[in-house]
Design goal:
transmembrane helix, 81% helix, Growth Hormone, Chain: A, transmembrane transporter activity, MFS, mainly alpha, 15 helices
Length: 431
């Protein structure tokens, strides 16, 4: 109890905006696993076409950068907390719309995916800016460690409950044995969670970014490297979100298996991540990042070698650890580079948030199109077995890009210690 009380004191000592942002994300974290995992399972169940999950992902990815741009203009008129809340609310409503569709056509799935992309665009664009302005470099490991702890705990509880509920509805005859009715109830739960998270977000007293230009075509060379890192992340992102559901539904069984496997690995991951967030420092980020990438490659290799239920379970288990490790290292690197380059180029920080999303989208577009082409013209098995490993190996190149970014970014940290104004930062050679 003393240790728990001490952890609570550490949390209470953080700035109010940071605490309110963490509480908002904690509530919404319990809605995201249902949206991410079971929408894909629902599409597969209703359409019997695995490639349609990637169509959904591609449409979703297209909606995100469009909303990032729209969000930049709307921030000039509306509070950031309202736009942040809007993104969460739309995600719940969009899930409800999908459940009410009598059948899932190609265009219907694309439209639903695009609307979900709009919701994620409002959510992520404002979430990144709020994290940037609510934290400092020395407490970002703690912030992302605790936030990832919330999301990981939610990924333990919600998939297990939702998967058991869906599976039991069919096996035990709940709700007349209608799996669709079970999805409807889960949708209502998601909508309620998004409403609660939105109410908390409005209590955060968050400041809007300055009303300034945010569209640029040319950037500092350090940001160009960050864009390359974002593109590599995007290539894998489409696969990472959709692949676990597709593998489990194809090789293991049904929604109950999706929830059980996801929850089992997440338990240890949650504890590990909170500890890492508390004890690690900025200089440890490259090692954490490399560990996450290595797990992704290992899981994809075993899945390729076995390509059966055991291989799928092993891959999902590796991914449960890899995703939060990557986030724990990646987001602090991203925010640090934004601070550095924004001061160097004297630009609105939101310009880099939008630019980063464009880089993510380019990579995600390539990854999704690669999967769809292989699944349509070769086979779904080839896409899930070989393309997954190829993407994992490509993403492993990210560790070298991250090292280069941190190495080049050290001059910015050193310059902060010099008795000069932040707007007069100089290049490494000038220092």
């Amino acid at each position: 109890m003393r240790k728990l009380l001490n952890e609570y004191k550490v949390f209470s000592s953080q700035p109010r905006p940071m605490r309110m942002l963490l509480l908002t994300n904690m509530v919404y974290a319990f809605a995201l696993p249902v949206i991410e995992l079971f929408l894909g399972a629902y599409i597969i169940r209703k359409s019997n076409d695995v490639s349609l999950v990637m169509v959904y992902q591609l449409a979703q990815g297209t909606g995100i950068p469009i909303t990032f741009m729209l969000n930049g203009y709307l921030l000039r008129r509306f509070p950031i907390s309202r736009l942040y809340a809007l993104g969460m609310i739309i995600s719940g409503i969009d899930m409800g719309i999908m459940m009410l569709m009598p059948e899932l056509s190609f265009f219907g799935i694309a439209l639903i995916g695009f609307i979900m992309g709009l919701s994620y665009g409002f959510f992520w664009a404002n979430r990144v800016f709020l994290a940037l302005n609510s934290t400092k470099d020395d407490n970002r490991n703690y912030y992302y460690g605790l936030e990832t702890f919330f999301f990981t705990c939610a990924s333990i509880v919600m998939p297990l409950i939702a998967g058991y509920f869906i599976a039991s509805t069919q096996k035990l005859g709940w709700l007349g044995g209608s799996v669709t009715s079970a999805y409807h109830i889960l949708t209502i739960l998601v909508i309620l969670l998004t409403i609660v998270a939105s109410v908390i977000a409005h209590k955060g007293r968050f400041a809007n970014p300055p009303n300034a230009k945010f569209l640029y075509w040319k950037f500092h060379h350090l940001w160009d490297k960050m864009q390359a890192l974002a593109a590599l992340k995007g290539v894998a992102q489409g696969f990472i979100i959709a692949a676990p559901v597709m593998l489990i539904m194809k090789l293991v069984g049904e929604e109950g298996s999706v929830g059980s496997i996801q929850s089992t690995g997440s338990f240890l991951s949650a504890i590990m991540l909170y500890i890492l967030g508390r004890v690690t420092r900025p200089e440890h980020r490259t090692k954490i990042f490399a560990a996450g990438l290595g797990l992704f490659v290992l899981g994809a290799f075993v899945n390729m070698a076995l390509f059966n239920a055991l291989g799928a379970i092993f891959f999902v288990g590796c991914l449960v650890f890899a995703r939060p490790l990557l986030d724990l290292a990646y987001f602090p690197i991203q925010l640090g580079v934004i601070e550095c380059v924004a001061a160097k180029e004297k630009r609105n920080q939101f310009a880099y948030i939008f630019s980063h999303e464009v880089g993510i989208y380019v990579g995600r577009l390539f990854g999704c199109m690669l999967f769809i082409m292989i699944a349509r013209y070769i086979s779904e098995d080839a896409a899930l077995r070989y393309a997954l490993l190829a993407v994992a190996l490509v993403q492993f190149l990210s560790v070298f890009v991250a090292r280069s970014i941190l190495r080049d970014g050290e001059w910015c940290e050193r310059s902060r210690e010099l008795p000069i104004d932040a707007n007069t930062l100089k290049e490494p050679s000038e220092l």
